[in-house]
Amino acid sequence: MNKIKKLGGRLSKGLLTLALALAAVIAAPANTSAAGLPFQVTEDPAGATYYLNDPATPLRASFAYNPSSVNGYINSSAPITVQWYWSTTNSTAGRSNGQGVSTIKYDRIINHTTTHTPSTSTVGVRYYYAVVSYEESISVGSGQAEYVKREAVTNPARIEVIVRNNPDNNNGNNNSSSSTGNNNSSSESTETDDDLIADDDDISDQVTEEDDKCPKFENKIIGDGKRTSWALANLVLMAFGILVTLAVLFRAIITKKKHNITWAVLTGVLAAAGVILFILTEDISKPMVIVDFWTIFQALAACLCIAFAIKAFQNKLAADKQSDVDKESDPEPKDNSSKKDDKK
């Protein structure tokens, strides 16, 4: 029986360790501009909407390097470059459609601002972002350094170009038709039909182009929580709560202690709430995002699960210690049989 309890304790601790590992993966930085790297993004470009061929306001992005406020140093001998990119999807993962590279001069403290004017010659939506590329100098001991390539990337700015709607001059067409007779009226009607067909072709081309630019499945960082996408973080947090519940439940079954059963029930309720929340708010047939509005509640349920699990394990450790103390305080049992033999 003791062996079974030990095996159960090890298995429950293993499940708890796996759940903590999943939590560490969620807490890890999701992009290269995470805090602690030498270059930091201090200003992201702002999106806008323009009419076709109208002048656009330049996009603006700022970067900073100050070794006294971050962890890490820049390799001063390697080039530091900044480049703008645009994409048809709300993502900075690709590096296509580059807009030219410029160099940033190295200094002990760097505050660099870059601008770029988006194009308004094409109808549609584009996402613009700036990337600073550099090398981080990492000390490996004995006065030697190792150089690692790094990037600081801004959040993408949504730039939309639309067609300006001009009302038709119907009065002029009617006057021309009445003054020139039936032949001219027929000619004008034919020309109008051709224009309408051409306009329909243009609209069809624009819709096809927009469909090509907006794929059904695209990776984004933040969702709106309206079942238009599903969040990977919510799935991991839900699995985290289930693993924690299994660890506490297994401990309760092995030990058969009332306090362990209580904590197992509490963690089970929270894990079930996380599953129900995921089913009601997420649609895995939609595009995947990293986090959305419901991630806050999933994270809260997961944190409460781990808190209850820690409480259950702490109570078990306290009970074990008390048992050891009781054993040490009890005197050794006397051998009554030996006394009976002596009397005889």
Which terms would index this structure?
6 helices; seven-stranded mixed sheet; 13 strands; three-stranded antiparallel sheet; alpha+beta; 2 domains; flat; 344 residues; Immunoglobulin-like
Largest beta sheet, briefly? 7 strands, mixed
The percent range for strand residues is 15-25%
The backbone outline, from C-alpha atoms, is flat
Gyration radius, in Å: 34 Å
Q: Give the ordered list of helices and strands.
A: HEEEEEEEEEEHEEHHEHH
Separation of the first and last Cα atoms: 40 Å
Spans of at least 5 consecutive residues whose pLDDT stays below 50 are: 25-34, 169-193, 203-219
Portion of residues within helices: 40-55%
Structure in words:
With 344 residues, the protein is α+β, with helices and mostly antiparallel strands. It folds into 2 domains: 2-29 and 222-326; 39-162, Sandwich (Immunoglobulin-like), CATH 2.60.40. The chain has helices spanning 2-27, 170-213, 232-255, 258-281, 295-329, 336-343, and strands spanning 39-43, 48-51, 59-65, 73-74, 81-87, 98-103, 110-116, 124-141, 144-153, 157-162, 220-222, 230-231, 288-291. The strands form 3 sheets. Strands 2, 4, 5, 6, 8, 9 and 10 form a 7-stranded mixed β-sheet that branches. The chain has a 3-stranded antiparallel β-sheet with strand order 1-3-7, with no helix packed on it. Strand 8 and strand 9 (144-153) form a beta hairpin. The longest helix has 44 residues, at 170-213. Mean pLDDT is 74; it is low at 25-34, 169-193 and 203-219.
